[in-house]
Amino acid sequence: MMKINKRKGKDYAWAYAMVGPTILGLIILNIYPLLKSFYLSFTKSNGFGISKWVGLANYERLAADPAVYQATLNTMIYTVVSVAAGVFLSLVVAVLLNEKIRGKGIYRTIYFLPVVSAPAAIAMVWRWLYNADAGLFNYVLSVFGISGVHWLTDPKTALMAIVIVGVWSMIGYNMVILLAGLQEIPRTYYEAAELDGAGPIRKFFSITLPMISPTLFFVVVTTIIGSLQVFDFIFMMIEPSNTAMQYTQSLVYLFYKHSFMMGDRSYGAAIVMVLLVITLIITAIQMKLQKKWVHYD
Amino acid sequence: MTFVYQNGGEILNADKTKTGYRDEATQQAIQYAVDFSQKYKVSPTVQQLADMSREQYFESGKAAMGMFGSWMLGDFRSNEYVAKNCDVAVLPKGKKQATIYNGLSNAVSAKTKHEDAAIKFVKFLGGEEANKIQGEKNAAIPAYKGTENTWVEANKQFNVKVYPEMLKYAVIFPNSETREKWMLMETEVLSKAWAGEMSVKDACNELADKIDALLATEKK
């Protein structure tokens, strides 16, 4: 009996040593900043880092700030549209590239390329594509007689322009994960279905979709969290002087603006707390809902 | 901003307690600037400028003139079109001549362990010799009187001697403790006037309310 316990203790020590670096990283990079931000959101800071406790003042200001509501709405629209379009397209691409087609290695590489490109560089190229006077999109549209779409400066199109870039750059990553899920599905299921006379559509909905649902669930959850944090494309493509900014800025952008452009880190921290709560609620809802559509066996 | 001071207006009053955005002269000057793109259509609109910067308009030969700080000279020199076709001149004048200038400064941390050495170094940086080096190496226009020639010499291909000449009637960049906060408000609110979504008067008054509220929080 003693011997087994000793042995067990040794195993635990090893286990802790293995996860140690990750836990340490989490504490330094995630948990500590989280607690610090939470604390900051109850203080008022000046430029030299001296802060004093102000209770809920930042949250009261936040509740009365129309920019916060607009940014929340922008973030939600961005997330809903980009997740729906992005996950759907990723799945379509993954299923197509899982077939036996010529040059699928090349196609997979092409779809994955946006993932390895720096977001800042991507944003600069898209910015040029969207340029109202000299951009490629408006040039192509002008051939069809449509002219002068102000992609990034018209409040009606700016957010969608950002969504398109977001979707384009997420497809590759999601595709790879979904491909891995697709390859786990045993061929025998399809063969059996074929013997029973099932067509490709029927096979997709009755075999592929249920079998891939755990992977798909993972993709949906991570994509939603990622989309809620959209910042880089907005920062790179929309200038502060752009009048479409208030209809485009996300919560993270608003956080950045207050924390680093205006030097009010306390208010910025309060904004980011709102985002944290939204993310937690959405993820909790998904965890509940997954029982309805995710099949683990 | 230059137009505002050329028109006898101001952005911030002398004791930094009130902004000048409510002044007639200030609003008039901003209207004048807005009219270039809104009324006379001779300047790119704020929407166009969101797609392409002022520098890009100028460097591609699409804009004939622009007001740029002396720090832009490095970029312009390396641009083939500008180097070949453009030069620097004294700013056009409004009711009176004016331009904006600002200084660079060095500071020492209050918690430093090497106070004497740091202060000595800062003194050197403010002295004649360091300013000469700054001018020769083309870092910025040296602030030490008499050393600006080293900078003019280092930028021969453009007629840059006009920059120090304009100092005679230059106004220092309006600054205050909460400047970084209200600078962004200026951009956001005034761009609505620039886009024609709001009248200049309304935008300026809205801005004045916001800035005054911030100025009131400053410790005087």
Shape of chain B: globular
pLDDT under 50 segments of chain B (min length 5)? Answer: none
Number of strands of chain B: 2
CATH architectural label of the largest domain in chain A: Orthogonal Bundle
Ends distance of chain B: 25 Å
Task: Report strand order across the widest sheet of chain B.
Answer: 1-2
User: Can you tell me the residue ranges of chain A where pLDDT is under 50 for at least 5 consecutive residues?
Assistant: none
Percent of residues in β-strands of chain A: under 5%
What is the CATH superfamily label of the largest domain in chain A?
Answer: MetI-like
CATH homologous superfamily grouping of the largest domain in chain B: Periplasmic binding protein-like II
The CATH topology of the largest domain in chain A turns out to be MetI-like fold
Count of structural domains of chain B:
2
Q: Could you tell me the strand content of chain B as a percent range?
A: under 5%
CA gyration radius of chain B, whole angstroms: 20 Å
How far is the first residue's CA from the last residue's CA of chain A? 37 Å
The CATH topology of the largest domain in chain B comes to D-Maltodextrin-Binding Protein, domain 2
Largest interface: A-B, 26 and 18 residues
Report on this model:
The complex is a heterodimer of chains A (297) and B (220). By secondary structure, chain A is an all-alpha fold. Chain A folds into two domains: 1-40; 56-293, MetI-like fold. Chain A is 75% helix and 2% strand. Chain A is flat. The two termini of chain A are 37 Å apart. The mean pLDDT of chain A is 87. Chain B has two domains: 2-102 and 173-216, 3-Layer(aba) Sandwich (D-Maltodextrin-Binding Protein, domain 2), CATH 3.40.190.10; 105-157, no CATH class. Chain B has twelve helices and two strands. Chain B has helices at residues 2-6, 24-38, 46-51, 54-59, 73-78, 80-85, 115-126, 128-136, 148-154, 162-165, 179-194, 200-216; strands at residues 99-101, 170-172. In chain B, strands 1-2 form a two-stranded parallel sheet. Chain B is globular. The model of chain B has no long low-confidence stretch (mean pLDDT 85). The A-B interface holds A 47, 127, 130-135, 150, 152-154, 238-246, 257, 261-264 and B 46-52, 177, 180-181, 184, 187-188, 191-192, 194-195, 197.
